[in-house]
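Table S5 (text form). Sequence records supplied for joint modeling of the two-component complex.
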Amino acid sequence: MAMTAAAPIAAAPARWQDFLLLMKPRVMSLVVFTALTGMICANGRMNPILGAVAILCIAVGAGASAALNMWYDADIDAKMRRTRGRPVPAGRVQGADAFALGLTLSLFSVMLLGMTTNWLAAGLLAFTIVFYAVVYTMWLKRSTPQNIVIGGLAGALPPVIGWAAVTGSIPLNAWLLCAIIFAWTPPHFWALSLYTSEDYEKAGVPMMPVVAGAASTRKQIWIYSLVFAPLCLVPALTGLGGWSYLAVAALGGTVFVTLAWRVFKSRAGDAADPRQDDGLYDVKVGAKDARNLFAFSILYLTLLFATLLTEHLLHAPTLEVFR
Amino acid sequence: MSDPVESSELEVKARRGRNIALALGLVIFVILVFVVTLVRLGANVADRAI
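The corresponding structure-token record, covering 373 residues in total, follows.
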């Protein structure tokens, strides 16, 4: 199990920055962004200080679950080029310390969010942490190629938590934001795994290209893209998004589906990956289509949420076909 | 790592950095709880029936 493999003798003394790295700051920044969008879209009244503390709690909660993930997955991380430099597999932080940090920050973030906003939001944050650290990390990731499909719920919940923090309720539009991130996750991660499948195979992680093969993964990316792109248009019909959102969703969705089609028709992931470096963007020519979809998926989701955020901050008019 | 003096200095420096970060984290947490209490208490006092 991870606990035994995760505790190599420390190679260098742990710096405070190593503990910050355990919290995956880049993922935390994405969580902050989507949670903030949920809070702003809720159109409720909230003291800005409490709002800032709520965002901080959600970010720290995400960081805590990341630390728990790094504690448990140290054995896997040590085998993959992309992750072997992380603090625990590199030996800079002991596994037990990463576990203690994750557990402590989980408790602090959930309790403080409950005190600051309401216990629905705090309960959702607790659920998200448990779902990511226990259901995804300890169970799904090592047992099924559907790991990132189901596990994607943890990454999709921050806007719902943000919404609940403001209003104390979770209406349809909040779940719509969740559904968009949930449907975005499979094509996004499988595009990445198409050109890093050698790493996952080495680590024994049953990612879709390793278990079902590259051709099946490309097909599933295409099918999920056909679900995801139309789903992105729905907020424009429910009054959540306005005209500019509709334009961004339609245009970006078209590009997304086109890129997914190119991946479907490509041979991405068919051959072994000959990369010698750790760069996610340095891939062999055959996997270029997968890399393009991976890169655009990040840009598209960011644009969608940034547009929603801007529209609600500017109180832009919406379509409101049905509520 | 061959020089024990240098290694020890590294460890001391790293430990000091961790201690300062931990202290800062705790101070920030205490301030947050204090501020949140003030804001929430203030709102409840303002909303009370007179």
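Note: Chain B has a mean pLDDT of 84.
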